[in-house]
Amino acid sequence: QVQLPAPGGGLVQAGGSLRLSCVFPANVFRDYVLAWYRQPPGKERESVASITTNGYTYFEASVTGRFTISRNNANNTLNLQMSALKPEDTAVYYCVADGRIWGQGTQVTVSS
After folding, report:
1. Each residue of 3-35: pLDDT tens digit?
2. Alpha-carbon 30 to chain mean position
3. How many helices (H) and strands (E) does the chain have?
4. DSSP calls for 12-54
5. How far apart are CA 106 and CA 92, in angstroms?
6. Dihedral sign for Cα atoms in the order 104, 106, 39, 61
7. Could you report the per-residue pLDDT of 88-102, keeping only the tens digit for each?
């Protein structure tokens, strides 16, 4: 079972910051590429960022330079640090392992 702690999402003003965290089972965390996706209102789910087991990262163009993805090996946690948030970042955010093991979504709303 993938846990996505409720704290982390929420409402923030444009220009603000939020941090999302997702705790995976140890074997899942250790063995797979981890990623964040989001689904804006009325749109398809889209990739945000990913990180390999070796720590290599990938970011979608729209979040490059504003978002940071990291994995904490001590507690099997995947993090997404979001800064300089924009209204268009408003979405339900999901963590995922191996493209198939999904956490529950958390709402992020950025007000203008």
Report:
1. 555 446 889 999 999 999 998 888 888 999 999
2. 17
3. 1, 10
4. EETT--EEEEEE--HHHHHHS-EEEEEE-TTS--EEEEEE-TT
5. 5
6. negative
7. 999 999 999 999 988
